[in-house]
Each structure stands twice: as structure tokens, then as C-alpha cells.
Amino acid sequence: MYTSLISAPQLAAIIGQSVRILDCRARLGDAEFGSRAYAGGHISGAIRADLDRDLAAAPGVGGRHPLPDRETLAARAQSWGINDEDQVVVYDDASGAFAARAWWCLRWLGHEATALLDGGLGAWKQPLTADATTIVPGNFSIRACLTRTIDAATLADQLSEHELVDARTAERFNGEQEPIDPVAGHIPGASCLPFQDNLEANGQFKPASDLGARFAALSDDVICYCGSGVSAAHNVLAMRIAGRAEPILYPGSWSEWIVDPARPRAP
């Protein structure tokens, strides 16, 4: 069972067995990018998992990508043909930024056998296909949650008690630029650890020892956030690869935090 990463050769060896592959390609600001990319070619047998339609609820006071209803997401997993005993593999072409959200969401529903394709689609050297995948609905069920979350109200009340890690770039964290949200800055007290720094130059995750060193100074109750709770899951995954305890995810992240002007902001 693969629960964090799977290599391209490892995936190739189990295709045709009890494995379901989710194509999670997406681009912020272009809702149809993933569908176009999937239609243009995907790993054989892969099913399309859409960031906005499947892995998030409608944007609003909960941020740009609030978590979907658990029952709704479980029904979607059934429609993807996922069974409780299946190995699930997720991939994208964006350094894992979107696939990590799918990885985290399935763990949120209790499906431990979920892994991200290390290096993404760029690591897959076999031919892609544009053929549609035939799906037989699966028996996927909600099991004991494998993740931890915190909501905005609780975080605001306990802000001084927690250590926060922001997965966005330093420019966004420092408020020097903000191309997406209407307010720039970060949650006070947070540290900036961009998710891109979890990776080697080839797009694959750094060794567990290197990731362990990156996060060594953090407590076991660290809270991960980003702009909308998507790339924060990349840091969650990296910490799990490093052998750390499951960190806490703040799903609403900065895009929810700034909805209430009473919540403190920095700088």
C-alpha cells in the first residue's frame, strides 16, 4: 500500500490491478484548463478530478476553495469507481500543488491507500491516451478521518497558542504582491515555507531526511495554510514524508481569514 508517494515505475507495475488514478490538473483562474488537458491526453485509466467542482465547495465566506461536504465527496469517489480496498494514485502537472489537495481530501474521508505520483505527469514516460475511461461505480465509504483541521473561529481564539506555516511564496506572504486575493499579507505569527521548496529541481520530492531538516524546528501541532487551502496540503504531505505527525490544515486559509476584517493581519 502506498500512502504518500508512488514513483512512475511503481505505478506502471500496478496498473490493471485494484488501482484508481485521478487526473487533478488545474490552473487557478482557468476553470476549464484541467478538462482540456485531460481530453488532450491522460494516463491510461485515469479519471478526471476537478479542483473546483469535485475537491471544493462553492467559493464564498469560507474562502476560494472551501472543503466540500464529506458525504458529497464520498459519493463523487464512488462515481470515480473507487472501492474501499483500492489503491488511489493522484497526479497533476503543477509540482503536486493540486494533486496534494486530492490526496489530503481522500485521507480526510479515511482512505489511507492514497499516493501522489512523484514528479507528476512529467515523470510518466509511457504514452498518454485520449480515450474515455469506462467506470463502474465503486463501494467507497467514509471511514475514520486520517487528517486534522481547524476552523477560522477556533484559530482566531487560539492564535497565540499555535505555530502556523504558510505555503505561499515569500512575495505573497510579505504582502509585496497579491495576484489572487483582495488583501495582501499573512496571518500574524506565521512562518513562510513555500511548498515549492519541498521539491528537487526535477519536480520530485526531496528525500525524507532533507524534508525532516526543513521542518525540524516546528512543533507537532503546526497548522498549515496557504491562499485557499490547496497548496497547504503539499506541506502536509511533505511533513508526512518526513515522518512527522499529521499536521493541522486550516482549509479556509488566507482567502477565508480576510473575509472578516476583525481578524488580525500582517504585515
What features would you highlight for this structure?
single chain, 267 residues, Oxidized Rhodanese, domain 1, 5-stranded parallel β-sheet, 10 strands, 25% helix, 12% strand
Fold and architecture overview:
The protein is α/β, with parallel strands linked by helices and 267 residues long. It folds into 2 domains: 5-123, Oxidized Rhodanese, domain 1 (3-Layer(aba) Sandwich); 148-257, Oxidized Rhodanese, domain 1 (3-Layer(aba) Sandwich), CATH 3.40.250.10. It is 25% helix and 12% strand. The protein has helices spanning 8-14, 33-40, 70-79, 99-108, 152-157, 170-173, 208-214, 232-241, 253-257, and strands spanning 5-6, 19-23, 46-48, 87-91, 114-117, 148-149, 164-166, 191-192, 223-225, 248-249. A 5-stranded parallel sheet has the order 1-5-4-2-3, sandwiched between helices. β4 (87-91), α4 (99-108) and β5 (114-117) form a beta-alpha-beta unit. α4 (99-108) crosses α8.
CATH top-level class of the largest domain: Alpha Beta
Work out the strand percent: 5-15%
Overall average pLDDT: 97
Head-to-tail CA distance between termini: 44 Å
Structural class: alpha/beta
Can you summarize this structure?
The protein has 267 residues and is α/β, with parallel strands linked by helices. It contains nine helices and ten strands.
